[in-house]
Specification:
Chain lengths: ~90, ~475
């Protein structure tokens, strides 16, 4: 399965709504930028995870909920939540 | 004839016969002498590599000798007359090139002057010195760089940087000069511990490790028997390490894309055996446990007799694992070098370690990345105490899934460059211990100002120095 930018955004919005226990419609897209992440875990590796050390093209998705900003990172293979309460998550 | 003249005539005839006989003997002696001169073997040369044949005029066998092509229609008698007038002689007539004669000069005249003399003659089409074709001394003479026949080689700045695309000429690992000594060996096995390898890629297929027929399938007490014909997949504990990401295939091509095969690119090693191991999934990440499982596989195969001497590990994280460190130490005890990516966070590994490259185990070689101008890549981790060496790692062209090629950047790309050079060294010196091999790599660098205080060796790997 190869994710598009829209797929990644949709997955991120659903995930955040669920985590915050809010309506998905209340999650707003602040920005989605194409960037190079430092590794294949998109610079958001989880515990006990090793990743290829190759620069990886993807999207940095910033979402807003009630005035707070949350960062998701995605590429064609994956979506990750970056630094949520001090931890990273694979979606 | 009257009787009074008979005796003087007989005496004269006898004298003439004796003179003729003596002259004939002289000619035979001369012929013998000449034939002896001709069979003196040329001075024995050390073996040399292809493309090293050079023309030299420094080793004439004691007399100037030239090749003269006379114009069509010039008779042999005319040629003999001309050479005789100059006190030269025709040493040989080349049967398949009418009019072409090898001419000796009996006055020991300079060959260049002799050529000039003959060139002016109306009977002569051309004249040239008879250069001696020799193989330069591979030990004492300078090595001649060897270039592969691979259509995309000119894009491989890491191997030979001619300043292409704004790069700095010479900011490379001096691969062509190393190849004058060795292009690798299919007796050296390098384990690519990664997302697997596309072992069917046309530029890799001939350099892939295949389990020898006399080696039993892999047996693990917990996993059972795995028919590891093409390697090992530690994610599924299966026998198929096919790459579904591309990262492992890219790393494999940097080490050992078949060289001079008229396809794609050349690896650091034209000939090598790449053992594909899969522990990272299609996304390019995997677990510590699967990495350990794959390293254990390598150790077991080494114990079973496979000459796997290097693990190339283009991955990592900031999570420290004692178990991973222990298995890498075990690999050291088995004589296996562990080349690891320093990481891509632009940080100092001395302060914020990156694993496995920061493990303090003797077989670990931590690798930083350089760009095409010999500058530390903006993303590359560094560490004067914990990062050993640097290698090209930006815009590196290599093999990709589906018989494709792609340019990628990262310490992931720098790592297999060093692993590949290590394999070249072992091709040249198979008996080196892992400690000797590591020392060889770290002392075979080009020191760079840009790496001063950034990596332990202070330099970029130089393959030519490493195989000296």
């Amino acid at each position: 399965m190869s994710l598009t930018k829209e797929d990644a955004l949709s997955k991120a919005q659903k995930d955040l709504a669920k985590r915050l226990n809010v309506e998905e419609s209340s999650i707003k897209e602040k920005s989605t930028d194409e960037v190079d992440f430092p590794d294949m875990a998109l610079g958001a590796g989880t515990e006990d995870e090793m990743s290829g050390q190759m620069l990886t093209r993807g999207w940095r998705i910033r979402l807003d909920s009630a005035g707070k900003t949350f960062e998701y990172r995605a590429d064609k293979n994956q979506v990750r939540l970056f630094n949520f309460k001090g931890k990273n998550y694979k979606i | 004839m009257n009787r009074n003249n008979f005796l003087p005539h007989v005496a004269l005839a006898l004298v003439l016969i004796l003179v003729a006989a003596f002259a004939g003997q002289l000619r035979r002696w001369q012929k013998q002498w000449k034939s002896q001169v001709r069979i003196i073997p040329a001075e024995k040369k050390h073996p040399a590599t292809i493309d090293e044949i050079a023309l030299t005029d420094s080793l004439h066998l004691g007399r100037p000798e030239i090749l003269v092509r006379f114009k069509p229609g010039v008779s042999e008698e005319t040629i003999d007359r001309i050479t005789s007038q100059l006190n030269d002689r025709v040493e040989d007539r080349i049967e398949n090139a009418p009019g072409l004669d090898a001419i000796d000069d009996l006055d020991n005249e300079d060959a260049t002057e002799l050529v000039a003399q003959y060139s002016k003659m109306p009977e002569v089409e051309y004249a040239e010195e008879n250069y001696e074709i020799s193989l330069p001394d591979a030990v004492e003479g300078p090595l001649v760089p060897v270039l592969p026949h691979d259509p995309q080689f000119s894009d491989q700045w890491a191997l030979s940087n001619e300043g292409q695309r704004g790069g700095k000429k010479g900011a490379d690992i001096s691969a062509p000069l190393a190849w004058a000594t060795t292009t690798g060996s299919d007796k050296v096995v390098v384990a690519v511990l990664d997302s697997g390898v596309d072992y069917n890629h046309a530029d890799l297929v001939n350099n892939m490790w295949v389990r020898p027929a006399n080696l039993p399938p892999y047996h693990d007490d917990d996993l059972g028997i795995i028919d590891d014909v093409n390697g090992f997949d530690a994610i599924d504990n299966s026998s198929d390490p096919m790459d579904d990401n591309g990262h492992g295939t890219h790393c494999a091509g940097i080490i050992g894309a078949e060289g001079s095969n008229d396809i794609g690119i050349a690896g650091v090693d034209w000939k090598v055996q790449i053992m594909p191991l899969k522990f990272m999934n299609a996304g390019g990440f995997g677990t510590t446990k699967d990495a350990i499982e794959a390293i254990n596989y390598v150790i077991e195969r080494k114990k079973a007799g496979v000459n796997v001497r290097i693990i190339s590990a283009s991955w990592g994280s900031t999570q420290k694992s004692r178990a991973l460190e222990d298995i890498i130490r075990k690999a050291y005890e088995e004589g296996i070098l562990f080349v690891a990516a320093a990481g891509n966070a632009s940080t100092n590994n001395d302060r914020a370690p990156h694993f496995p490259s920061s493990y303090n185990v003797p077989n670990v070689v931590s690798v930083a990345a350089l760009d095409r101008n010999d500058q530390l890549a903006s993303f590359s981790n560094y560490g004067p105490k914990s990062v050993a060496i640097a290698a090209p790692g930006v815009d590196i062209l290599s093999t990709w899934l589906g018989n494709e090629y792609e340019e990628k950047s990262g310490t992931s790309m720098a790592t297999p460059v060093v692993a590949g050079v290590a394999a070249l060294v072992l091709a040249n010196e198979p008996g080196l211990t892992v400690d000797e091999l590591k020392k060889k790599l770290l002392t075979s660098v080009d020191k760079l100002d840009s790496l001063n205080g950034k990596v332990t060796s202070g330099g970029r790997i130089n393959a030519a120095k490493a195989v000296e």
